[in-house]
């Protein structure tokens, strides 16, 4: 496994990250977006996420080769301890352990925030398709996620219907008095990124 440098995203990374995301939109059913976002829209997405949650990139030899982030699971206070995760790796770097490094770093940061539940929404092909495999399901299983439900024929792309599965992982104890979740921006006012990663 090639060791990557993991760091926080900045808005200057948006163009490279969008390059990584583009083929997933144009050539796969891994994302259900039909149209590649504009650079401005992508920057706005990043800026919105980093106020509350971690958004990290993985560099190899100074070039971003993957990224991962957490975002709101449901916009109600009772869901504060739950997030939805996303990860994308450059097509030429898949299967080399980069996703594993990104997810471990992301989960570490989420624990520091007080997040207890991580959820992943994953395209799950019910039949063989050239647009998606079971790879993401298997990747999450390897990381300790468990399958909790499937919505059948819920996504339509490339003239095919795709199932969508939810997988979950618990990051901590579910006490009757859980601590308040701390926004990542607030944590970074007190600690460096390196301190949060330790």
TrEMBL record:
It holds the Pfam family Acetyltransf_4. It is an enzyme of class 2 (transferase). Residues 4-172 form the N-acetyltransferase domain. GO terms for molecular function: acyltransferase activity, transferring groups other than amino-acyl groups. This is Acetyltransferase, GNAT family. Keywords: Acyltransferase, Transferase. PANTHER family: ACYLTRANSFERASE FABY-RELATED, N-ACETYLTRANSFERASE. It comes from Ligilactobacillus salivarius DSM 20555 = ATCC 11741. The keyword Acyltransferase applies. It comes from the Bacteria. Its EC number is 2.3.1.-.
